[in-house]
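Assess this today:

___
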Amino acid sequence: MAVRIRLMRMGRKKLPLYRIVVADSKAPRDGRYIEIIGRYNPLPKKAEVVVDEGRLFKWLDDGANMSDTVKNLMRQQGLTLKYELIKRDADEATVNKELQKWEMARQERDKRIQEAKASKKAAAPEQQQLEPEAEAEAKVESKAETKVEAEAEAEGKTEAAPAPAAEEATAQPEEEVVEPKKEEAAAPEAKADPVETDAASETPAEEPEQDAAAESKDEK
């Protein structure tokens, strides 16, 4: 049978109280148990943990496993460190010395935690006062940026408006210059046409002279 050291919930609704029990690992959480070896009360500011060390170590020697929650509670009480030292066959003086070191380290850690909490509480009102000021400054900066962007867009539009008129003014002289060239080029062609018509009109006049010469030869 696998044995497990775990919590069993007691107490009322929203007022929990737990027993530290040794039970079969297959039994339900609040079901049958083998032995009660302690209790755990999480309601006070500093949680209360009471454990029978002798029975705890005895069950651990027999192969019982602790649940994660119980293991954390035993670590907070220094019992896991003590059990490891006992398993290493450390004498009582060494065990007490190591436990004193552990207790001093825990007190220093708790002291640092309390100081951090106190500094955080002291800084909270100042931060609350600074937050509205920072928000107001951010709003003013955003308004100034939008105003500058609007002015830049207006300037860009005014600069871009005269450009088409200037292009039209430059395009009109080019058309006037090109058109006279076309008229001048057409003028020589018009002059050349009368020459061709005169030549065409002169060529038929030679034919009667040739006919008269032929008639005189026949008369002779």
